[in-house]
Amino acid sequence: MSYLTKFAVLFLCVMTFQLSSAQEQVLETSDSSEKKNIIYLSVGAFHPMAFGDNLANKALDKKIGANISLMFRFPDTEYRMGLYLSSFKASVKPDATPLVGNYSKVGIFSIGVQLGYIFWEHSNWVAYVDGSIGFTNYSNSSEHIDFKDNGFSMSLSPTLQYDFHKNIGLYTAVTYRHDFLRTKAPSNIKNFFKHQDYVLLNLGIVVSF
Amino acid sequence: MKAYYPFLLLLGILWSCNPIDNNKRLSIQGKVSDSSDDPILGIEIKTAYNYYILGSDLTDMNGNFDFASLAPNPPELKIQFNTKSWRDSSVTYQEDYGSIYYHFNIRDLSSSFTLDTVQLHQKAQLNIEVTSSATDTINFVLKHKKSELHYFVNTDNNLSNYKYDSGNVLPGTTTFLYTYNTLKDTEATLAYRINSGEEQEVIIPINQPTTTYVLSY
């Protein structure tokens, strides 16, 4: 079973569980007087899927990645802000050398700031959207070659979080991510390297306090 | 602070050794045909810096190629047609054809290289048959095309694409057969001198896979 299939099955299971639990708890009342946590540490995994006529979609076999974020919720508001790190690996498809050049491995790392808005809180459920902007680096290598493509990255992540403990929760998110690389190339192949589009399926845990 | 200097120096050296430009790609396009202007399918074109292969592609059925390449950090780029080396275990090398190297050395390395039709000649064999006479000595020099051609663009290198082979036949009654590897649909020039006579020259057209020229005198 491919990474994508495994990840999709897991993702759907968690989403189904969360949605069915949400329906059962609709009648429950939330305790708005309870003091809300303001610091959120999220650690998760994501499956990157690319689309469009670009390097990420046409030339890379992408592996499961990991991300971590530390967010601070502004007291008495619905806004949150923080930092994130994200990383995943990919290999260049065997027949993609004419598209990208002669290298075989890519490590994609991203770091930046996130701003989020919590638009729904009910009982143990929280739904929010995080937007991020950061620096991204594609470390490319093969046996004798090592070089980089870099630029900046923007993303938007609608997220659903379920807190099964006062301080621990699970989250799932679907992220749209766009990487703007600085790669200089002639006009016929420029956009292929400049713009990378991804959809990421995320799963992870959140520790809040 | 001074203790860090060797470390910084080492880092600088390592950094400067990187043969690939960050954040850059080149585009290589063109067409390959044989000496009859017919397109050749499946010829491998590679870009290289020293022994680093930076990109590659195969010609399609119309002889066209179009690929992206990494950019070398010193602006010295080779575009190679149908080549094979010990380091690069190419399985697409076509034994029947010669090889061509284009060498570019330009400061502002252009990011797009469009090569017009590149003519790749088939390999050929030239035999020179000489039968010695009882009294005469013959010396000859044969000028013919190498099967590996080099073209230098924007450089002062004048590496010749011709090979010069010489021989001499002493008095006797033996028939000698000299064999040379060259390219089909080219010409070879045979310059020879009998004893201490005047030099004579003959042009030998090579339009068959094997051409045999009988030098009689």
Please provide a written account of the structure.
The complex is a heterodimer of chains A (209) and B (217). Chain A is built from four helices and nine strands. Chain A is an alpha+beta fold. The longest helix of chain A has 22 residues, at 3-24. Chain A is 17% helix and 57% strand. The model of chain A is unreliable at 21-33 (pLDDT under 50). In chain A, strands 1-3-4-5-6-7-8-9 form an eight-stranded antiparallel beta barrel. Chain A has helices at 3-24, 55-58, 97-100, 190-194, and strands at residues 39-51, 60-62, 65-73, 79-92, 105-122, 125-141, 146-163, 168-181, 195-208. Chain B is mainly beta and 217 residues long. Helix content of chain B is 6%, strand content 55%. Chain B has one helix spanning 5-16, and strands spanning 20-33, 44-49, 52-58, 64-72, 76-81, 99-105, 112-119, 123-131, 138-145, 148-153, 162-169, 175-183, 186-194, 200-206, 210-215. In chain B, strands 3-2-5-6-10 form a five-stranded mixed beta sheet, with no helix packed on it. A four-stranded antiparallel beta sheet of chain B has the order 11-9-13-14, with no helix packed on it. The radius of gyration of chain B is 23 Å and the shape is elongated. The N and C termini of chain B lie far apart (83 Å). The mean pLDDT of chain B is 86. The chains are: A alpha+beta (209), B mainly beta (217). Chains A and B meet through helix 3 and strand 7 of A and strand 1, strand 3 and strand 4 of B.
Key descriptive features of the protein:
heterodimer; A: 209 residues; alpha+beta; 4 helices; 17% helix; elongated; B: 217 residues; mainly beta; five-stranded mixed sheet; four-stranded antiparallel sheet; 15 strands
